[in-house]
Amino acid sequence: MTIETKYNIGDKVWTINSLSEPIPAKVVGIMVEVRRNRTYIDYKVDNQEIIAYRRENVVFPTKEELLKNL
Prior knowledge:
About 10% of the residues lie in helices and about 45% in strands. By secondary structure, the chain is mainly β. It is globular and about 35 Å long. About 15% of the residues are buried.
């Protein structure tokens, strides 16, 4: 089985914080989970204020892309 991720460790990305505000962050880890033939990818992101896991669907390459998807 080959699993491809959108982002790699060290990539700069945009996501949302717990207040649903856009924040820049850096990918510092990747967690992959396979359940019932479905793959879930979570990115561990760090923006010097928080370190949190975010699902792949709420991590974007630019602030503009993130805002388009809110």
